[in-house]
Backbone:
């Protein structure tokens, strides 16, 4: 082999080796489509899974937003509330009963049921109580879709099953019920000034805000039927995008709202299983 041929062969060897190395390096640093663009994003739904799983996640998100009107969930609810009526921004609000991280806590122990429950079972309890309705079929499309959506927005949260209560890391922070004495009369005035425009003076609700009491609201088995829980929620959630109530005002409004009648939770009616 002459010097010219040897030089050509050397150059070819280097070129082939460089191409192989580059391809190998690229394979080790490759990212899932969409991941690079969303790296560091605070929006847990910035990218969806592909295929049928992605379709199920999107369906769950839709059901969370349109629970009272979607044909799959409408027969299961007994009022005009949607999941997002309480879990603001379809559960993505950082403080108002956030869904983010919830799936990481399940299975979890539930003192109310005195049992370890799954995420799907917790979803069913919301249908029974907050939506005064009936239980979605276990393993059915409604239950699985909503669970898939909650799991998807929780996907960056390390698994940490909760042995005390079915609550995730971004649970609603409860105010101290012993520290504040609510005043119903003062709450009535505050309600008229701060809430009635959306929820109406009689609490029956409008397109701008769901019913807060009466037969079209959540039943007395729901968490928000407890004054201290509603006050805690109001403090971080209302008014929307400008939550500025003091703790005292939140307790006063909650006491006024919950001084009105609402449906009774009857397990034999709401949950015949």
Residues:
């Amino acid at each position: 082999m002459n010097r010219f041929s040897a030089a050509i062969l050397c150059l070819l060897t280097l070129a082939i080796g460089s191409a192989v190395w580059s391809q190998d390096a690229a394979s080790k640093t490759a990212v899932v489509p969409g991941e690079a663009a969303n790296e560091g994003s605070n929006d847990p739904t910035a990218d969806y899974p592909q295929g049928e799983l992605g379709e199920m996640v999107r369906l769950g998100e839709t059901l969370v937003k349109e629970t009272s009107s979607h044909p799959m969930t409408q027969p299961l609810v007994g009022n005009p509330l949607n999941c997002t009526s309480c879990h603001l921004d379809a559960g993505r609000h950082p403080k108002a009963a956030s869904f983010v991280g919830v799936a990481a806590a399940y299975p979890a122990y539930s003192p109310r049921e005195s049992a370890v429950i799954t995420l799907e079972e917790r979803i069913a309890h919301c249908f029974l109580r907050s939506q005064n309705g009936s239980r979605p079929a276990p393993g059915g499309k409604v239950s699985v879709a909503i669970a898939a959506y909650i799991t998807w927005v929780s996907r960056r949260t390390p698994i940490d099953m909760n042995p005390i209560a079915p609550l995730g890391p971004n649970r609603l922070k409860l105010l101290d019920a012993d520290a504040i004495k609510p005043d119903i009369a003062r709450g009535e005035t505050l309600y008229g000034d701060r809430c009635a425009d959306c929820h109406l003076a009689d609490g029956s609700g409008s397109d701008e805000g769901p019913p807060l009491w009466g037969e079209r609201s959540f039943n007395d088995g729901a968490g928000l039927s407890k004054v201290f829980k509603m006050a805690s929620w109001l403090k971080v959630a209302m008014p929307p995008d400008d939550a500025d109530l003091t703790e005292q005002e939140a307790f006063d409004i909650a006491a006024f709202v919950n001084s009105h009648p609402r449906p009774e939770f009857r397990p034999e009616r709401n949950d015949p299983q």
Notes: The mean pLDDT is 86. The first strand starts at residue 108 and ends at 110. The radius of gyration is 26 Å. Residues 51-171 form a domain with the Cytochrome Bc1 Complex; Chain D, domain 2 fold (CATH 1.10.760.10).
